[in-house]
Amino acid sequence: MTTNNGRDFYQEFEVFSSKSNGDQVQHQFSLLAPNEEIALVMAQENFMRRQPVADIWVVKRSNVRKMTQEEKESLQRLDNKEYRTTKGYGYLKKKWRHYEQNILDEKEILSWGGDEKQ
Amino acid sequence: MSTTLSYDRLSEEEKHAHFMERIEKGDKIEADDWMPDDYRMTLIKLISMHGISEIMGALPEKEWVPKAPSLRRKLGIMAKVQDEMGHGQLLLRVAEDLMKPLGKTREEIMQDLFRGDLKFHNVFHMPAPTWGDAGLIGWLVDGAAIITQTNMLKASYGPYARALKRICAEEVFHAQHGEAIIMALAEGTEEQRPLIQDAIDRWWESLLMFFGPASASTTGASKQDTTIKYRIRTKTNEELRQDFLDKYIPRVLSLGLTIPDETLHYDKEKGQWVYRQPDWKKFKEIVRNNGPKSKDRLDLRITAYENNAWVREALSPDGAVV
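Predict the joint structure of the above. Result:
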């Protein structure tokens, strides 16, 4: 039987999923499938046989604009960005101690979202 | 930024030097990155063989799905066979992306396999006549596979390392699945116990062959130096075989089983196991698809491919119906 199932049959899909409701979606891997619907079924069979999963996305690879090697290497940051991070202001801890106050660091500030009244 | 490289302006030697610098500092190479041709070709050979071996390796075990002794065992071995197919899918994707610049696709991988140009792992050419063999494959063949696969978890090629991370996580289940079958037989009736000993006697030589010859001088070909140079793996075939013997010989003996090699012993001074060499001439025949079950398993794969052709045809975007 002659078939055209060779070169044209498969398309490349990138698979993304999130573990649980509310979780961010992460890239998993790629797969070959003839269309989106089968790509979804294959994604579940290939990558989510046992781990918990709440959502799956499949994206045709041709719709993903990836970076070239040159572009990726240009992303490497210079390491003198301390003024953008708390690391550049670490001396405040000592200063506040002098005034008998605690520093409002990331751990402290992000704990303020809780419902309980302090 | 001044550190940005303009690839177009680099000579081949400069690209190669930059590449080696990257892998030596632990950078991961991705599919579209520049890589030397022999790195690409070595990876294609290694990973397409690994991927197709996962699929061919499911065949001796799948024979035992309908014959498993209980419903629980049937579910267990079915899940394992399905995992092997899943691993094959993952690895073939990695190989296909590497082959893309050469104009090759999954179709060529399948045709290469059918023609005998693409080899599958030497251990999957052997028969699995009893339930003892099914257990032994899960326990010791998977054990050997875990040793070689974990050795490449830090491979310089990112997509392969990521695939192996997924695969090795599932191999932990495979190892325990095999142990559960073996344990039940080892603690079983007088008819059950010999099933494992017979399986060990049948598989011992194959288990030694699993890791390949110690050097190219044994069989005339070995890719291990290239794969170590390019940081795809870290240990030699012999080091992996010794790791396997270290881990598994005490476990085999603890169950009151024996190993069919009266010369086998641990040389404390050298810190390694001394064992009778397997018949490497037989190994060469097996990898040429002249093993006891090579033809049967290839025929099974070809028949499955042909029987499923209508599905591919029905779903083809061109919709051509013969």
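The mean pLDDT of chain A is 88.
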